[in-house]
Amino acid sequence: MKVLSPSRAAILLAISAALYCSTQTFAQTTKAVDGTGTQSQGAESAATAKIRLTRKNAAYWEVTFNNPPFNIVGPAEVRDLVKILDEIEADRKVKVVVFDSALPDYFMAHYDLLKPLTDSTEMTPGPTGMHPVPDFMVRLSRLKAVTIVSIRGRASGIGSELALAADMRFASREKALISQFEVGAGFAPGGGPMARLPRLVGRGRALEILIGADEFNGELAERYGYVNRALPDAELDGFVDALATRIASFDRQTIVDTKNLVDLASLPSDAESQTGWDTFLTSVQRPGAQARVKALIEKGLGQSGEIESHLNQSTAEFKE
Amino acid sequence: MKVLSPSRAAILLAISAALYCSTQTFAQTTKAVDGTGTQSQGAESAATAKIRLTRKNAAYWEVTFNNPPFNIVGPAEVRDLVKILDEIEADRKVKVVVFDSALPDYFMAHYDLLKPLTDSTEMTPGPTGMHPVPDFMVRLSRLKAVTIVSIRGRASGIGSELALAADMRFASREKALISQFEVGAGFAPGGGPMARLPRLVGRGRALEILIGADEFNGELAERYGYVNRALPDAELDGFVDALATRIASFDRQTIVDTKNLVDLASLPSDAESQTGWDTFLTSVQRPGAQARVKALIEKGLGQSGEIESHLNQSTAEFKE
Amino acid sequence: MKVLSPSRAAILLAISAALYCSTQTFAQTTKAVDGTGTQSQGAESAATAKIRLTRKNAAYWEVTFNNPPFNIVGPAEVRDLVKILDEIEADRKVKVVVFDSALPDYFMAHYDLLKPLTDSTEMTPGPTGMHPVPDFMVRLSRLKAVTIVSIRGRASGIGSELALAADMRFASREKALISQFEVGAGFAPGGGPMARLPRLVGRGRALEILIGADEFNGELAERYGYVNRALPDAELDGFVDALATRIASFDRQTIVDTKNLVDLASLPSDAESQTGWDTFLTSVQRPGAQARVKALIEKGLGQSGEIESHLNQSTAEFKE
Question: Do B292 and C251 touch (CB under 8 A)?
Fold first, then answer.
């Protein structure tokens, strides 16, 4: 298999940067994007509102996504996530962190494709030396604290990737819809699912999820092993809270020791995450991706609930 | 664990070839095999009839096994499969290939054990340097095109192995019966399932499938992760066609990039496939295998629907 | 990830041995443990009664745990298990070994925490050079004979670990309750589940089992892949016996060859098992573990059916 080395990717990126001007959006679209009704406003000033960290007690924290209408994540939200990650890493008492959403229909729609690509590519690398998106994902997996994701509503793209990078995933049987839509939009996912899904659900189901690029409801996600379990929606919050409370009652160092050994047996290498990110960056800048993303943005991607709730259908309607 | 190096296997094979004359069948049987009603006639002249390649459109191809009564695969059919593989590899537009059967009761019974073993061992190695059977399997897994196997009826031995080497597997809930019967017949499977099944379904279920050597219906195959999903028989064809059509609408290079990274995380090495083939070759020539295969051929293996549809029971009836 | 090298672990253990006197129990408890009603008496003299080896025929053996009331395993029972393992290893005809319990409510409760820790740490290493517990586990996995575990009642700690180290696991749908309770008791499991569970059930479910440290009934254990299958209690014994009888009818060398290749694709290294054992030893001697185990022993751990049947609740009641 031919994979891009980081240096090769950097060269490609430099060429891409020369070809695509610095204000390039993810897709050059003829439609004006005024930002109204999008996820992109006020990112810097309202971090705590968009991604809310609650310390339920010293050992049990909760991170709630509250960025209506779709909990879309772009460069600003990645910075917010990294700040919260820094806090979790630095704390000596936290044992368990639950990630959930304040929006009933969206856990996290996907990455923000309306912003210029350079807003993403020019971000300062994280402590692992990688771009903040893969850096966040690998650091999330290696936290000393246990992370539990509670999925209600749609989780696609980076929403699915965040869930996969966390330790455990529980889904609403009736209301969760999980997917990696990216291949349908013409580019490879960047947050690590090619590394994580085959190890979690096996090669066959991973390829179906990634290349079929369709939605999985809670029940099917459980059958595939995409989530630990799907629970009746009315029981999901109580189940996750009880599990987190239980773990928070245990000895912290024992949790750390046990997780370290599970990581040894199960985590992909950082190099594999870097390769995934490089592949995303290269693919998203190809004309094929540009045309598909442009078509999706023209239909209302990131702006209209209509397309967001039928993204799996919209991706298959593109005519080459 | 002691595994055979290729060179050691070659020596063993040479010794075996000296011990067993060049017209040795897989099992030396006292029963005359006249070929009537078997899979073995006309392989060279009717390749397109026995294994049919249909280009539904430039991006979506279908390979249909139509070799009644059991879709048994022997050296001639392997050559046909390799030719089709060559075509898929060489094409620059195909994105997805569906493998299915024209026979309602058999996806693919198993490898042809009536032919002389030397017909198989003397085949010219493929581009990977391996025998055409393991060569086909590893090249099938690495195709740029996505491969989807639709299983209705029995898939055993090489039928199961082909399904496992493909990217995704869907089964008829009512009519699929999947198995690796080989251990029951006294020899180790040769097409890679010891490498693939543990990575797909975990060690415990892999050992049960391989060493229990019994049949798994669609529902149980799904529960075990042996197939992606079992669908009601009436929905299977429509589901697979819709998925293939969907994938065929996506960007080809994006599919390739994504699959490459999944392969990196999930495919066994070629060396592991070679070792599996060597183990098969050594085991099938031992007296234990010869006696068991002979007993099965005398009962009608490869010739009678009665034994083919009760192969899992017949293997357990042998008295040492 | 920081893991202990064997030599570093030996130093730590030596320090621990100096800090904790040679008669240290697993937890220094103020409650007198008189042994009445516990698992610990008569270990040396009644080995065949506590762990019973039955040769059903030359090819099919059965190992039955019969150490009421809980089938607790301590140093003496580990020695008994190793003797049986030696017999299985030395025999040239045995093809399949079933492990089950004569007690309706317990397959195997957990390791004996009432004995002095030095009774365990001073045991002579096994042929792998490891302590007899990890030595037993890795040798169990590599037996030429196929091993099948039939789980009825509770299997926790070393009971779960023995099941995971065996080749296949079947559970009573109504009566099996499987768990790794250790993290709840303040120490990391020592018999290899951090190495085995992620490979068997994926990282997310492995972390839930290990760090949630709660019980899984037969049905959920099957859904997670923790066991091969859960069967109605009335069918469990017949199913396991039929599978073992079937395997016993097959060619022994073919079983060995096939299992060897599955092992190559699926078994963790001995180094990983050693690291798991070192982590257990270090963690169980920390004050956090000592306090939790002491509290559990005071409630009746290893002595009272009341706490043994609510161990998953008791572990979460500890106040730091």
Answer: yes
